[in-house]
Each structure stands twice: as structure tokens, then as C-alpha cells.
## 1
Amino acid sequence: MARSFFVLTKSWLRNQGFQNVVCFSSRERLPQEQNCLPFVPPCNDVTTDDMHKLQNFVDANEKILVLTGAGISTESGIPDYRSEGVGLYATSTNRPVQYTDFLKSADIRQRYWARNYVGWPRFSSFFPNTGHKVLSEWEKHEKIHWLVTQNVDALHYKAQSLRVTELHGSAHRVVCLSCQNVSLRTDIQKQIEAQNPTWHASSVTMAPDGDVSLTAEQIKGFKVPECQHCGGILKPDIIFFGDNVPRPTVQFVFDRLSESDAVLVVGSSLEVYSGYRFIIKAHDEGKPIAIVNIGKTRADPVAVLKISARCGEVLSQIQIK
């Protein structure tokens, strides 16, 4: 089975390292949400009229394809790249590693893995928020035909959504670029720790994909993990900037889209074409598109409804009949 098409159970999640899988009510404030709003850009309160329109949109469509982006996870405490005033691009000169640079440069791989190693304990501990949980409940009520996420944080799986495609992969898996063996990120963390018993660094900043900011001096002496099967280069099983989503994954989502009645975009500006292509296809097929996202998106001109408000606040007010 292709890595992007897992259908999961709670026991499977625990076997994959998610030891603290918990359930929350969609109306209840989740543990981290109270202190995570600094990563959410300012927005107006959602209006009654907008909520009425979104309720009608959900009621009118029985098989909704949901496309989520980083904006849904900022309410869990994970920063994003593009949010106005609070995203990485607005607050830092750091930029994500390019795929070709990662392949070509041992120094860049050392920098990447050192930063990822330091950031992993925090990144892997984030909880799903109200928005994730609401979408999981919608799936249980058979309102969601399929959920496609551009996020690599596995928070939809932690919220127990099952019909999920991780368009950009998952930071919770690591793949060998030579033999294609896939490992759990938790196992690689143990491997790195064993290889670097005296190396230590810390940082207070967190990037959207789980790494942190470290100086060149801090990175010195860090030993990069290699595949324990063949000695090959290890890379998190995510789509780096400059890389492409595998064609089978794209076609799988196109097929699920064709089976759907409508598309709901949650927390994405759709600036990256890998997700925007599905909006183009949906519009070409005459499917209605609704958007919940703070700030402009590329799909605003073709949407039947756009709500610029927090994802969890909006989704938790919808009643599934």
C-alpha cells in the first residue's frame, strides 16, 4: 500500500509511536489552544451570516473533499510560513531547505538533521486542536468523503481521522533514498542520540516542519544518521521545497475529488501549486468551493464562500445532521 493512503486504527497509531492518542469533544477547548494564538494572525469574529452560509454549504453536500493547510495547525502551536505578521517568512530570515541542496551537500544534511533532532521532542508532542477534532467527527458522520492535508504534523491522524492523504508526506516517517526502507521517526531519534552521546544544543524557536534555529557553532560535531540497512542517505518522508508530489498520490486525490460533491479548504492560502491544482480541477468540474482561512487565498475568486476567521472557531459551530 502506498505510504500516502494509510487507513488507520487507534491501535495502529499507537504501534507507530503515537502512544497518547486521546479523544476530545469538538466543542471543548484542547490543552494547548489557550497558549497557541500567537501563531494565529489577527482576524475579525465570524459573522452570523457567514456561519449560516457555511452551514447551508455543509448541509447541501453529502461527500465533501476537505483540503487542509498549515492554518489549521497554528491553533495547536505550530507556526506556519505565510501568515501575515506571524509566519516564518514575516518573522525570520531562515528559509526551508531545498530538495536539491539536501541531496548534494553533506553540510546541509548535517545542519538539517541537527536542527530536526533538537526540534523533534517538541514537534512530536503537539496535540490536535478543535479544528482537527471536528473534521474527525464529520468523517464519522460520513460527511467527509476524503481529507487531503498539506501538513506533515500527523495531527489529523492523532485526532483519529482515517480517510486521509498526506499530500506532502509525514515528519513521523523517515525514508532511505537508496533502499527506500521506511523507519519511524521515533526510532531515528534514538539512533541519533546513540551516535551523538556528548553533542547537545538547544533553541527556543520552532519552524513549521519541526526543525529549529541553530548556529554553525552549535552544529559542529553532530553526526548525521545513515540507513542501518544500506548506509544510504536518510530523509524525512516529506516533500521538500523543490521536490514533487508523487504522481500516484496526485492521481489518487484527483480520483477522490471526482467522487466528491464539493470542496472545503481549511487553513490554506493555496500558494503552493501541489494543493491548488485540486481547486482548479474542482472549479473546472463545477464543484462548489468554500474556504475558511485567515487572509487571501489563490482560490478566493472561484469560491462560493470565504470566511476569514480561526478554523476551530468556525468549524465547531457547524451542526452535522
## 2
Amino acid sequence: MSSKISLLLICLFILHLCAAASVRGRKIGIYEIKKGDFSVKITNYGASIISVFLPDKNGKIGDIVLGYDTIKEYKNDTSYFGAALGRVANRIGGAQFTLNGTHYKLVANEGVNMLHGGLKGFSKVVWKVSKYVRHGPSPYITLTYYSADGEEGFPGDVLVSVTYALKDNPYKLSVVFKARALNKATPINLSHHPYWNIGGHNSGDVLSQVLKIYASHITPLDEQHIPTGEISPVKNTPYDFLKPHKVGSRIDKIQNGYDINYALDSNKKMKPVAIVYDKKSGRVMNIQATAPGVQFYTANFVINTKGKGGYVYQPHSALCLETQGFPDAVNHPNFPSTIVTPGKTYLHSVLYTFSIKK
């Protein structure tokens, strides 16, 4: 073995030890970024968004994401409220894949499949607060995480960051995920899981909110919610939101509710994703992203969940629009690739623009 290779192995071993020690001793905190009457709170546990406050058409400030009052509740959460997702968001069929001739068996956490990175995905780790500017013209926080080779079965060491920032005026939230594969090719598909109810987290269900999704195709699922590999048109189906529809207008035609990946139409780097409008509050949310897909989920399995202020969340009390690479892309060559090779940087940007319609 050459001296250069030996030195590299020693450096990686030291990095592993330092990262492990750092995570064990890292404090969990809550961090606010604020600009006027717009504020977002984040915890470094799971790099999770725990609140988003902004006014409605009457000037009343309200929190528009579901969540909990304590960090302990986030630790016990099984719904991924507000959490960052990785190393691979969404599902991997059979919790396995083959890459460059090597078969990788991952940690299954949903039957035989992997969901959102496994038992200890990025939503269940303590991230490092690398930079934090609470106030000013561009408040932001950057969180970083070192994912070791073999974590949840994935190959290679990966450095990951997510930056939450308030941009421009009046109400823009930017979320930027970055990752670098250090020594092996590996799948990376980072996303996050805010449960949006722009009428207010405690305002009831979202079925009357109006939704437009800029996608004319979906990736159909098998009985285990794994993509079949098809990319099918939404025309003449309840999945068609190319024209604005109320979320609940056709939800009864789908078992439990919506939970599927849409293939976004635009070829632009920053793509239009979706627009949500709540008539009662007047709030509008416009989403753009660089990812090729978006998972539309209507909180189907949030049942009797005690949330902020003791409010009890029920099915359809929120909607999720998780921008992402296609689910199970590692096992479908016709899907956009999620493989990142050493020397390449993974980038996924999301921009939420909120406005008020009076």
C-alpha cells in the first residue's frame, strides 16, 4: 500500500472519530431567523423547520406549519414534521440497489423498503450550526452534517449542508441543500418535509385550499408505494392539478389521499413547482425548485397527533410539497439519476414566496 493511500485512510479514520465525538457532544437548540413580521424557527435536530410566522389578509400573524412544542416530541415523531430528509428522501424499493457492480443492502424501515434515509436518516441526527445571522437584510442559518461511509448501508463519506434564508421583500424563504461525495459514488436525494397549512397550523383541514401543480405526469406506484417505473399522464385523472383545483375536490377518488411524485414539466434550472391559495386567510404560497419532481402528500396518516399548543392534528390537516429527485431512482434507469460521484457537488434549491391576496 502506498504512503499516500495510507495517509488518506488515516485521515478518513480521524475524520470518522472527530465527527462521531462532535455529534455526541453537540447541543440541540432552536434558532430564529426574522425579518419584520416574517419569522422562521429551525432546530438543528433533524435540521427541521418548526415554525413559519407571517400575517394574513387582516394583518393577524399566524404559524403555517404543523409541529410540536418540545424537542422531545420531535425526537419521538414518526411523521417527519418539518425535517430534512436524506441521504435519500422518499422510498428505495427492497432497501437495496446496485451501483458500479456492487450490491448495497440498506436499512429497511418501512416493511422491506427504505423511507427517507432509514432508521437514522438525516431527520434523526443533530446537525452542526456552521453559520447563523438572526437579523438584518438577509438573515440565515447554515447547518452541516457529516454522513459516514456505511451509514444506513450507503456507500462513501458525504458532507451535507442546508441553508435556510429570508430573501428580499416581503416574504421569501430560500432553502438550499448541498452535498459532496468524498470518496465513492453514492445516491443523494435531499429534501425536507414541512407540513403546510397556510390558513394556520390550527385552522383545520386543507381540503378547501386551492392548488396548482406544474406537472402533467406522475410516477405511478405499486401496492408498497414503490414506483413501477412508468411515467404516466395526469390528464383525466384526480391527479390533474395543471389548472387550480381545491385539494379536496377529488380526494375521495384516491384511497387515503394524495401521496405521489409528480414529474415537473419545466426544463428550466429553477422550475415552477406549485401554488397554494387559502381564501379565508388570503395567504398564497408559490414554490420554485431545481429538483425534477415533487411529492404531493395530504397528511393522510396524521391521526390524533397532539401538536403545538395542544391542538390535535388529523388527516388532511396539512399538505406537503416535497421537491426531490424521483423516488427509487437508483432502481429505475429511465428516471433522472440521483448518483453523485466524488468531485461533483450536489445542489438542490427551493424558493417559497408568500403573498397576501385581499
## 3
Amino acid sequence: MCIVLFLVSFLVATAEGGRDAGLVTRVKETTVLYYASSSELNAYWQSVFPNRTIPSSILDHLSAPSGNKMKDMEKEHYWSVYSDRLTEGDAKIFHNWAHRIASEKLLYPETVFTAGSKINLYIDRAVALHSPYLRRDIADSIPMSTKNFTDITAMFAPVSLSMARDMWSTLSSCEHPREVAGEQKACTTSLESMQGFSALALRTSDLRAFSTSLDVPEEGISSPSQRYEVAAVRAITPRAATNTVTCHSMSFPVALFYCHAVNPTRIYEVTLKREDGASIPEPRTLAMVQALAVCHVNTSGFDPTLRYWVKLGLKPGEASVCHFLTRGDVLWAPASAT
């Protein structure tokens, strides 16, 4: 089991009759934080989903570098951040998932997922793909909230300003009100809590988990001037529509997923082939890509000011909203629907 020694320690307070989740902000002796080992996570997965494959977007976190190695990789960019130095402007949200996914270039109508359709392909980059999972008992003891931001940054000290911004953005996203009417959401900090939320939202523990193809690079795909032709489409959820949960890996020193359900949905595996009319292919493009796409069928509660609707000449509720999954996303669906 991997152990990370923190330069600034934290103490988990013990309240009468049980364990208190609050962190005591005192610099004292060095303490340890336990990450979940690969063997523990594999054992848990097999106990819940025997003989079912672990998605690559979960496996990526099992091969995460150690905390010290991660710090060594970026040590030139780190300096200590204290609460009096972190201004309101510094803490602005840069990576709020809801804002990223609202970008019109990431959104598609469901009608494009037919063989022969041509699109400019945009798949967002995966963030924190190799952040390690915490052991559940440790994860549950840490209150992931902007109110505890100083305590949390102290846990991972020294922290760069850019890292602190990402951490604040992630915590703020977790606290943000629901973006869509009827949306269910939660931020999960362990594999067990991600599976637990998905089972609760989908009202079944018999689940299948999916990730997009390894064809999709971590940095995503951007083709503003080159077109891709849809070569093949396969429905992952063959019924008319079903309920699913999508969990997005967020910028954080440990594995933290923004999980939400905006249902009903249809899920497709889409194979795309780049049109090579240009003499020099654009960077961040591939000749052939296979990727998962999620289509939200009921869009009546979506933001009517999105440029997506203006581009289509439609209003919320008059068309589905689809987007491709990043390399770091995990999709959960009832086994009976796949």
C-alpha cells in the first residue's frame, strides 16, 4: 500500500460516539495518508462485479505515480500557498465542468450519429487521469468543501498556485447548484462511493461500467478545419432510451469524480475516419477514432441561452444534446439496458 508523507500534517478529530469528519488545522508531526492499492481495488471490483471488466478510465488511476513522484515531476512549479495569499481572483473557476461542456463545439445533435455524416470532431481533454484513489475510510474522513479549502491545500503542501486554482474549481463545481432541472449529482472521492452513487441514482446494483476507447488520447481531439466522417455507429444501450450516470475525472491531487445523471440518455460507440484532404493533418487529430458518445434525450430543462440552440435554430426540448466522453470519464448503466 502506497504511503505518502505530508509536510504539513492533518489530524482527524474523534468525536464522542464516533469519528468526526472535520479536519483540525494544526501543524504538528508528520502523519501518513493511505492510498488504496491496486489489489484492494481489484478485490472490491470483483466482489461487486464478478467477471466484469474494469474500464480503462478506472484502471488509469490504479497505475498512478506515487505522491512523491508526482511532486518531483512538477517540483519546479511548486511553492507554498497560504490562505492570505490566495485572493478571490486567484481562486476563480477555470475548469468547471458545466462551463466546459456548454461550449458549443463540444455539443452535437443526435442526428449526426449516422453513417456518412461529417463533423468537426472535438473531444475534451482528460484531467487528472492518473490521480490515485484514496482508501474509502480516508476519503470519507475528508470534508471536500471550499469551506475547508485551507485545510485541504495544507494536506498536499507545497501547492502551486495553478494547482490551488484547479482544486478550488473542482470543489466549487461540486457545490454548484444543479445545472439542469432534475439532475442528480455528487462528487465521489473513492471507487466505492462512485459505484454507490451510481447504484443509488440508477436504482440497481447490477451495473456495467464503460469508458471510451484508448484511441482517444488524454489530451483530447480538436479538428477545427478538418472533417471526420462517421464510419459506423453502434448503440450501447439498444432500447429507446435509458438512465445512465456519467462520472468525469476532475482536477485534484487524488481521484475525484463529478458524477451526474441527466436522464434519459442514449449511448453510442461511434467510429470516425478523418478526411485527409489537407496536405498536413492538424495536430491533435487521428486518422481513425472510436469513441463513446452520450445523448441527453430530454433537454427541456437545459439552458436556453446556449449558442448550441442558436446554431440549430431550435429551443430546449426540441432536440437532444450529445457529447463525446473524454478518456477519463466513466459511464455507468444498468446491466439490463446494455
## 4
Amino acid sequence: MKLTVEQKSVYDKIISAVNEDKGGLFFLYGHGGTGKIFIWKTLFSGVRSKGDIVINVASSGIASLLLPGGDGKIGCSIDGIEKVEIPDDLLIHNCDDPISGIVESTYSDFLRHFTDIKYLQERAILAPTLQMVESVNDYMISLNNSQDKSYLSSDTICMSDHAFTSLEHVHTPEFLNSIKCSSIPNHSITLKVGVPVMLLRNIDQLSGLCNGTRLIITRLGNRVIEAKVLSGKMAGDKVFIPRMTLTPSEARIPFKFQKRQFPVILSFAMTINKSQGQSLCNVGLFMKKPVFTHGQLYVALSRVTSRKGLKILCYDEDRKVTNEATNVVYKEVFRNLEDRSFE
């Protein structure tokens, strides 16, 4: 992956200030998906490659305005898992059906606007787990009356796997078809014209077709999908998405297999982790189950551009609506950074 002309200009300016020991304060602004994190990672690698110390710290965001206290601090001072009280104006109350409740809040008057690109571009539902995301996406696509089309993948054990001969007998195609993870599409994906999807792989970085780019389906073919880009400098442009051979990289899968499928997933709803880089006007945070990793709640809250665009539906262990959300922060992460800065 290479820096774009704009990214290279930012990189050169900052790295020259570091190399010449000038110092400085730089503010980098850009919409979600424009590669800000990629620039920070490149700068980090460039400075570390010379033996210098560099620490990446996220110190602000819209979440600091949304959370109690207005300073970005969540919960109390102890490590680990804490409960955070959600302000009443952000809560979804009296919800008999959780999925229809979060959908009505985030995609209000959906049947009138489901063909409006701007309407779809500005909103999404976020959830901690893939299971919750799929349940919302299935509900949303059922509201679209267009003709659906299903695509099946071809899944095989990687030939490069040393244990290929034995694994092909143990891990049958049916078993491989059943594996679900956020980095690759499912064995069967059902799409309709007018639904939003997200790319799961880089296709053409110079044209803005990168992992995380959102698109809206305009035509469904047998071997290619036509879509319009929803975000970034290519917003509104028509593109064609081919099938690709994808290999999941998740450590929890103890063997390598490959999937031949279109590299897209429905994006009415998306996992919190997958939402990183998105900037949205309306966000529905669906926590039927609590967040489970460090900083996940902060990431979710940081996707929305204003307080009025955020609504939260949170459930407790008894499956009742609650005004308390789980937050996970392990402060030893920051202590380790502080210790390393003095090495």
C-alpha cells in the first residue's frame, strides 16, 4: 500500500520536522476512510526505523463530548470492566422488539428514503458482535422490496498448508462453508439493488476502493456487481466489484483456507471494530450484548459527528433495557507505554 499525493505531502512535512529536530504541532483533518490512521502508522514506522521513540495516543474525539464530565473519561479509575451511565436523551426507551426499535431510531422513515444515497450514506447501526450485525442486516434487507440475488462461495483448504492432504478429508467444503468471521464474507450472501455494502478488501486504492469503503448496489450480475461509491473522493462514481479469492487471517482459525466470493458485506449495520474510519451523522448503538475489548465503546461513540445523531439501545444480563453500558479500559496499556518512554 502506497501513500497518495496528499498523504505523502503530510508525511514529508511531519517527518522533516522530526528529522530536523524542529518539533511542531500538526492538525490532520479528513473524513472517515481517507487514510488518517494509515498516515500515523507510516509515521510511526518511519520514526521507529531510525531507533527513535514514538507513542501514538488518541486524546480527543466526539466521544469526549458525549460522555459524562465532558473530558473523555469513562467510568471510575480502576482497571478493567466498568459500568457507564448513559444520558437519558441518548437512550431508546420502551422497546418491545430490539431490532425494529434500533432500526426505527436510526433509519427513520426508511421506506420513503431507501433509494436516497445521501440518506444511506449518513447512517449506520453498530454492534459488538457479528451475530447482532447479521440479525439487523437481515431485517433491513427484508424491508427492501427489490428482487434479491444470492451468491455462493467456493471454499477450499489452501494448497500451501503443510497438512493439506490430511486437512482436506477432515475439513469438508460443508464445514468450510459454515465458518463465519468479520474479515471475509459468508458462504452465502444475499443482495438487492439499493442496499448498502462495505468492501472487505482493497481493490483499487488510487480510486478509493479500499477495505472499509461503503457502496450502494445498482446492478447484480452473475460474475460482477455494479455499485456506486457512498463515501470519499469517489462518492457517486460507478464501480464494478469482481469475485476475489480471500484468505482469512484470524488467529482463532488454526488452518488456512480460501474463499472465492464477492468481497462485500451488507452495511446497514456493522461491527464496532469494522466501523473504524467511518464518519456518520446518525448512529444507532445496539448493545444486546456488552462490548468486550479495550476501547470498543469509545470507538463506537466516536463514529457519530454530533450528539443529536446518537441513539443507544442497551440490555442488561436479564435482557432488559438498561441505562448502563459496559466499558472496558485496561490502564496497564498506558502504563506500559509510559515505562517504555524512559528506556
